[in-house]
């Protein structure tokens, strides 16, 4: 007898128990039908819906690097998308404005040096009684103004992008340099590069946008009619690449064009596989205190408008009606009909269904 004939013989030799939901099979029949079972996974959330989303950086983790002085970009050292370290040189600007500030600093340093020499001289003369205290106070005022002017120019150069070491070297060597280096303010990746070699830029013109990785958000476009179902703390899952996030904010405004609102979730697992700006399809999961089980799609079958799974019992298998809460790509979520510890059939379902349904169609009573 071929395998098809053997299968038919096994099916018609099966009996249906009096409760109409049991297919009675012995161990040999189960072995020939190649029936296999699995233990459902107990989960704590119900699938709510699928929606489009995108990975973003929290606003506090984005930084704009701008031009501290006007000038012409002479070179750019980093391309888009690379990792950078804090203090790394990103680009350089040829700036005549910086050149003027450096010359002013050197002039102020010279004036400060002269004022300091005059103050030292007048302090000596005051102690010897050669000059009046009024004369010394005038010299002291000149020195204070010279020092204030020098400190102001030093702070201006610091604000212009020069480091304290570069300012000290300028004062020591008295050699001006119009080339202004642009440094990374933090570790991160280059999300956007606006700087182009040869471009003339004004003061505070944006050159780079840097993202500090380590924390990512998912922004989900939620249809406005489903907003009431979303709760803070619900989970958001991404299948490809795999990631899990937790909802931290539900938007209070609706986009008039798409009639959707933003739901934000912080990524708790799988952030390393996501990139800012990446579009993903997400599954929203609603937290529940009920006993919820996840079974493979192959375990669930329909009959007369109802959903069933086969559960092993002492003398065969029971067709158990279940309530399906939602379906994922490879799994079905069941929230009624199963008890903890019960296994379900995942292979051989079609044969068992044929035995269960075919008995009635063949004329045998349930």
The low-confidence runs, each spanning 5 or more residues with pLDDT under 50, are 1-8, 362-366
Order of helices and strands: HEEHEEEEEEHHHEEEEEEEEEEEEEEH
Tally the helices: what do you get?
6
CATH class value of the largest domain: Mainly Beta
The averaged pLDDT comes out at 86
Structural class: alpha+beta
Helix content: 25-40%
Distance between the termini: 29 Å
Q: What is the CATH topology descriptor of the largest domain?
A: Elongation Factor Tu (Ef-tu), domain 3
Strand content range: 35-45%
Shape: rod-shaped
Rounded radius of gyration (Å): 38 Å
Largest sheet: 6 strands, antiparallel, barrel
Can you walk through the features of this model?
The structure is a single chain. The protein is α+β, with helices and mostly antiparallel strands. The protein folds into two domains: 36-58 and 215-347, Efflux pump adaptor protein, beta barrel domain (Elongation Factor Tu (Ef-tu), domain 3); 62-211, Beta Barrel (OB fold (Dihydrolipoamide Acetyltransferase, E2P)). It has helices at 3-13, 27-33, 96-128, 133-159, 164-173, 349-361; strands at residues 15-16, 22-24, 36-38, 41-56, 62-66, 71-76, 83-84, 89-94, 179-183, 188-193, 200-201, 206-211, 217-223, 235-238, 243-250, 260-269, 279-296, 301-303, 306-313, 316-327, 331-336, 344-347. Strand 1 and strand 2 form a beta hairpin. Helix 3 (96-128) packs antiparallel against helix 4 (133-159). The longest helix is centred in the N-terminal third of the chain and has 33 residues, at 96-128.
């Amino acid at each position: 007898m071929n395998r098809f004939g053997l299968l038919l013989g096994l099916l018609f030799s099966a009996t249906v128990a009096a409760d109409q939901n049991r297919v009675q099979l012995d161990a040999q029949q189960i072995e020939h039908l190649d029936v296999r079972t699995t233990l459902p996974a107990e989960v704590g959330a119900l699938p709510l819906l699928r929606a489009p989303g995108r990975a973003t950086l929290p606003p506090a983790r984005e930084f704009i690097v701008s031009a501290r002085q006007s000038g012409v970009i002479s070179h750019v050292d980093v391309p888009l998308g690379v990792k950078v370290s804090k203090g790394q040189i990103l680009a350089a600007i040829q700036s005549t404005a910086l050149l003027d500030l450096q010359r002013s600093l050197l002039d102020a340093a010279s004036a400060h040096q002269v004022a300091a020499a005059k103050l030292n001289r007048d302090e000596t003369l005051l102690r010897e009684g050669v000059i009046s205290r009024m004369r010394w106070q005038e010299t002291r005022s000149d020195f204070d103004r010279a020092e204030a002017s020098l400190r102001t120019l030093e702070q201006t150069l610091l604000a212009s992008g020069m480091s304290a070491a570069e300012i000290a070297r300028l004062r020591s060597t008295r050699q001006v340099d119009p080339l202004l280096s642009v440094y990374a303010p933090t570790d991160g990746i280059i999300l956007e590069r606006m700087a182009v070699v040869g471009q003339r830029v004004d003061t505070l013109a944006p050159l780079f946008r840097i993202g500090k990785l380590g924390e990512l958000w998912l922004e989900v476009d939620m249809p406005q009619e489903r907003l009431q179902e979303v709760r803070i703390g619900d989970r958001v899952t991404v299948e490809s690449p795999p990631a899990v996030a937790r909802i931290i904010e539900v938007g209070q405004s609706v986009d008039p064009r798409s009639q959707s609102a933003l739901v934000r979730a912080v990524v708790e697992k799988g952030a390393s596989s996501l990139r800012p700006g990446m579009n993903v399809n997400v599954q929203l999961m609603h937290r529940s205190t009920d006993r919820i089980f996840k079974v493979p799609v192959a375990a669930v079958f329909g009959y007369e408008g109802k959903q069933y799974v086969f559960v092993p019992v002492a003398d065969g298998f029971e067709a158990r009606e279940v309530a399906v809460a939602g379906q994922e790509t490879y799994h079905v979520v069941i929230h009624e009909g199963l008890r903890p510890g019960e296994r379900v059939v995942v292979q051989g379902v079609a044969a068992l269904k044929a035995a269960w349904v075919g008995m009635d169609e063949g004329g045998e009573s349930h």
